[in-house]
Amino acid sequence: MALTVSSVVSVDGIDVHVDGEGGETIVMVHGWPDTYRLWDGTVAHLKDRYRCIRFTLPGFDIGKPRRAVSLDQMSEFIRRVIEELAPGGRAILLLHDWGCLFGYQFYARYPQLVSRIVGVDIGDTRNLKKASPAREKLYIMAYQLWLSLAWRLGGRLGDWMVLRMKRLMRSPSDERFMGSCMCYPYYYTWFGGGQTYRKQFRRFEPSCPMLFVYAKRKPVMFHTEPWLDQLRARKENGVVAFDTGHWIMLQQPERFNQAVASWLSATAVS
Hints:
This protein has 270 residues and is α/β, with parallel strands linked by helices. The chain contains 11 helices and 8 strands. An 8-stranded mixed beta sheet has the order 1-2-4-3-5-6-7-8, with helices on both faces.
């Protein structure tokens, strides 16, 4: 498929934004309550050296019909994006929030399509239940059940609940593009029945190089220290902490973009 320096391509009915013509491709996946716009600054920083691909997660676009997407379906969508738009059929994954879970699960299914991973603020959460204090578990349960209810209710009330939680969490993301449609991952984690994410979950053990970037100024850590130690044990991996909240790329954009660019350059295969 012929692409210009900046193109918008439809993949399975989702607008996929492609910027840059670099030899390597970066697929950027956002989380809650964001859209592809989360990565605007990062794309501006990287597009001279990489082909940057991003999209609003299926089901997250408030201008489209409401729908939920399973882990398997999300992985298939990302596979289609990479196979259709990434030269050579492999990509770097740049992931944040739910984008981490979706990206890690994609890697667990299709490791051959991923060259490197940059995970932002969500690590391997397998042992969090054992490691987290009771107050952190209650915090996680409270906001996730609130957002699950927002999805179930929908409409104006559900949208209000999303904005209320967004403000409580001090998210800097743009409220114009937020709605209860973005909350299905929480609902299907807790109440998905046969479609619950827990039943589709696969073990994430990256063998490719990985950079993990996390924020220190937040009420809950979504990784464990033993997991960080496992990452650090491989010299090609990196771990970088930021004195910010959860939205690192918006709160310290220059340092974030430089950290990502430097690590990518250092781990590039000639």
